[in-house]
Design goal:
The complex is a heterodimer of chains A (about 210) and B (about 475). With about 210 residues, chain A is α/β, with parallel strands linked by helices. Chain A is built from nine helices and five strands; from the N terminus they run ααααβαβαβαβαβα. Chain A folds into two domains: about 80 residues, Methyltransferase, Methionine Synthase (B12-binding Domains), Chain A, domain 1 (Orthogonal Bundle); about 120 residues, Rossmann fold, CATH 3.40.50.280. In chain A, strand 4, helix 8 and strand 5 form a beta-alpha-beta unit. The mean pLDDT of chain A is about 90. Chain B has one domain: Alpha-Beta Barrel (TIM Barrel), CATH 3.20.20.480. Chain B is built from 17 helices and 20 strands. In chain B, strand 17, helix 11 and strand 18 form a beta-alpha-beta unit. Classes of the chains: A alpha/beta (about 210), B alpha/beta (about 475). The interface between A and B is medium-sized, with 15 and 12 residues.
Chain lengths: ~210, ~475
Amino acid sequence: MSILSDIAASLQRGEDDEVASLVRQALDDGQDAVAILHGGLIAGMGVVGEQFREREIFLPDVLLAARAMYAGLALLKPLLAKDGVPTAGTVVIGSVRGDLHDIGKNLVGIMLAGAGFDVVDLGSDVAPERFVDAACDHGASVIGLSALLTTTMPVMKDVVELVRARGLQDRIKIIVGGAAVSDAWARQIGADAYGYDAASAVERVRALARTPA
Amino acid sequence: MRPSLTLLGTDLVRRILAEARDLLDTIGLDIHNPAVQDMLLAEGARVDPSTARVRLGAALLDRALASAPRTFRLHDALGRETHHFGSGTVSFTPGSAAINVLDGETGAIRAPLTADYVRYAKVVGGLRHIASQSTAFIPADVPSAVSDSYRLFLSLLYGEKPIVTGAFTIEAFEVMRDLLVIVRGSEAALRERPLAVFSCCPTAPLKWSDVTSQNVVDCARSGIPVEFISMPLAGFMSPVTIVGSLVQQTAETLSGLVISQVASPGAPILWGGSPAIFDIRYETTPMGAVETMMIDCAFTEIGHSLGLPTQAYMGLSDAKALDAQAGLESGLGVVLAALSGVDNVSGPGMLDFESCYSLEKLVVDHEICGMAQRLIRGIEPRDDFPARPLFEELIREKHLLIAKHTRRHLRDEIAFPGPVIDRANQARWADEGRLTLGARARREVERLVAAWEPPRLGDDVKAQLDRRMASAARRAGMDALPKRDA
């Protein structure tokens, strides 16, 4: 096996120290940073993502792999051109105004970060204006709204309408989730997607982030 | 600490045992087998040949109890140890022996065929919480004279796990022993590494038939372990009170133990039974009744008080379909059996008063068994003290999903069932096809059948098994055995 294959395999096992050590060794051997990034780290994460979609591995396995990827990436970043550092995009998340429940939202945040997104977590009880302002400030292409309570679900609609009122609906997509939320609800309020769990949320966000503005 | 269930307590156990011993000494029991009567007479039993009545005194009982082994081991077809009865482990085996199967495709209850048995053997092989096979149902496409040995034959051809079985006639025992010896290579090797447990049933109240008493003797002399299956029927063929039925079950089981130990001191046995209450409203013998389970658990407590390994028919249901009743009765039975520490629990897969077998129910019950095994592993601290460092990490990292503590203990602490038990949220469940329990169970049965791999017995061994079975079938009037899948 080549050292790039070793890096990918080690990443899939979630061995962060080992990945860092192998990346260091590859650099010492004269390997190109971009080649290590694509042939080792991104290749490894690709397998992990596929296994996760097929339910062969589970959430902690993905998080461990992501941590291992960042351990390697930290060594490569200074050597990569600024636009060579991969990012899946920026997502603003939060529980909507009046809702203090944040376990599901936190899980989605962890998974998004693991999948390579920059996550701006606004916490719970977040007003519609803060979601939209933060998305603009951070250049986010997706806002993730969480609500556990049927009484707070209507706030999701307020966020959707605010994005439209500001004319941002082509640039900022909205995904909703939470115990009482459903696909039908998402369609009813005009949200762009619904995630029924953290894994599906990542898939949907990935698709939204790819949607051309 | 391992959780456990106590229903009787030391004093009540002592009184039940004393009453059972008194019954055997004073009233005695009927043994309809002259050779067994003679054998017991020679060891001090009081025998009335004109009535077949045999009375067993204290000295004979004490000798038998002293020689019965407190532990013994069972091995699979390849000779690997699978069970250490008496060591405190709880093992599960499919219920037996049904005369019908619930057809997973049509929902019909019908007579089983060879093809059904082959599918069953393939499924059992893939279930990790089911430690042994049993000859769970009786194929109707062979003559009844060989239906007992034929089940064992199929189990040996299609599975590696050891087998809980039984002979319906005295003659069948020889065929079945021959099949086991063929797999092991010799009688001595079979005695050294038992491959099967034979169920031997007294008849309520206080009787042993010619066949079953002879089976006990034959097994003991061949070193084949026996489980005694006493079947009191509370309120019908035994006292309606649980304690009264326990006195009877204890007396019947002690008598079996005496027959076994006189035939061959040290012969391995399981203290077991299949008691039930009698439901006077329907004239049925419900295995899913809580009182039935109470008799089972209490009887296990009596066996353990004697230091003996135990067996019980628990985890069965009287439902006629894979429905909520099937789940609740089997779940209750499996959990109570595990908490009672039954060494070998016979039941998974069984419906309709032990008369109907369902592969779909077996795969559901299998997951219940996994949960019960987790339950009796109990609760113990695992790097939990002092607690502060872990909570500091939780607050710092905001979660413990990938903490070392989580990774180290996740699989020990949490037994994830599946794929039959559904834990997806509603949306994911819908996304994955809205499968009902029955549909998930059917899918799992098909997966296990497809994943089956042939037992690693030599081709010469399989050919010998085939010849021996074909010979027995010919004697029963069948020219050729039914065709089988690979």
